[in-house]
Design a protein that fits this description.
Length: about 325
């Protein structure tokens, strides 16, 4: 077993290592080949390759001298206007080392920057275009002010699909000597939800327990209920076995250490797999959203979950009558 964190060990080093973003890669590679590019804005969910692509761009452009030409800042830690005025400006005003005419500043999680810092960044991007290019990364592009968005080429990343995640699992399993059956592989793909970083963390945590990784160990490490457990809870409610459903829900939450928000999100997914008519599914998903909102606003989570199970029981009774 390696001691290094796998998310760093398996971080892409070349464009070919980045999975699932073919159109983005095609456009970015053309910028690198020409050694000229605009400011870039990477937008998308966590763990889909935004930071990895920024690092690959720097390594491909600058070669061995990339560290001297690349500044990475996490805006969620340093979100004030002083960061832009001091750190960013000091780096941006000096010329690049080598034959590329600009340096790169990578601002991760820049949707956490205050509006004042974003306004200062806007001016800095204008003033230092000759010597510096910015790559901005965010989860929600709507939180970036329009003047910054208009100065950037925007790339929207999407979650990795099952095939891409499967290839990543196969590569890591081969290099680390792990043995996974198909159910375990499907379980990792399900709990990671398109997030490669989460996939690698869950896989490494499971590998600590042994080279043979099972479906059970994946759900245990990921603190996630198995889909069958959630389906069983919903089926008991639909059959009007409310007390049994309630007890099974409590056991599932305690066994896996799940919060109300965790379990309601899993319930919402599994509603679509129930053998009930479409209208009942719509009603239950609506009730799911209502329960999730109330829990997130501070209501007692188990009380809201009980109320939701009661709604499922009533929906089941109504469907049986029809």
């Amino acid at each position: 077993m390696v001691n290094a964190i796998w998310t760093e060990k398996y971080r892409p080093k070349n464009f070919s290592d980045i999975k699932g973003q073919k159109e983005i890669l095609r456009r970015v590679k053309s910028f690198v080949e020409q050694k000229n590019m605009p400011h870039l804005l990477f937008s998308g969910p966590a763990g889909v390759g935004k930071t990895s692509l920024a690092l690959v761009i720097a390594k491909q452009l600058f070669g061995d001298s990339w560290r001297g030409n690349f500044l990475e800042l996490n805006a969620s830690d340093e979100r004030g206007i002083d960061v832009v005025r001091v750190k960013v400006k000091d780096f941006a005003r000096t010329r690049a080392i080598g034959d590329v005419p600009f340096k790169i500043i990578y601002l991760d999680e820049c949707d956490a920057l205050t509006k004042e810092a974003q306004q200062a960044l806007r001016r800095t991007m204008e003033n230092y275009t000759q010597t510096c290019r910015f790559i901005l990364s965010c989860n929600y592009s709507s939180k970036i002010i329009d003047p910054i968005q208009s100065r950037c080429a925007v790339f929207r990343f999407r979650p990795l699909d099952k095939a891409d995640l499967g290839r990543i699992i196969d590569k890591i399993s081969s290099e680390e000597g792990l043995k996974l059956d198909e159910k375990a592989k499907d379980a990792i793909i399900e709990v990671s939800e398109g997030d490669c970083r989460k996939l690698e963390n869950v896989l490494q945590s499971s590998a600590v327990l042994g080279k043979h990784i099972t479906e059970e160990s994946i759900f245990s490490i990921a603190s996630s209920a198995r889909p069958k457990e959630v389906i069983d809870i919903l089926k008991l409610s639909l059959e009007n076995k409310f007390i049994e459903a309630r007890n099974k829900l409590l056991d599932t939450m305690l066994n896996h250490g799940l919060s109300g928000l965790d379990i309601i999100k899993q319930i919402q997914k599994e509603i679509l797999n129930l053998n009930i008519n479409g209208r009942t599914q719509l009603e239950l998903i609506s009730k799911c959203g209502e329960a999730e909102f109330r829990i997130s606003e501070g209501s007692d989570e188990f009380l809201q979950l009980e109320a939701f199970l009661a709604e499922v029981a009533l929906a089941g009774e109504k469907e049986n009558k029809e």
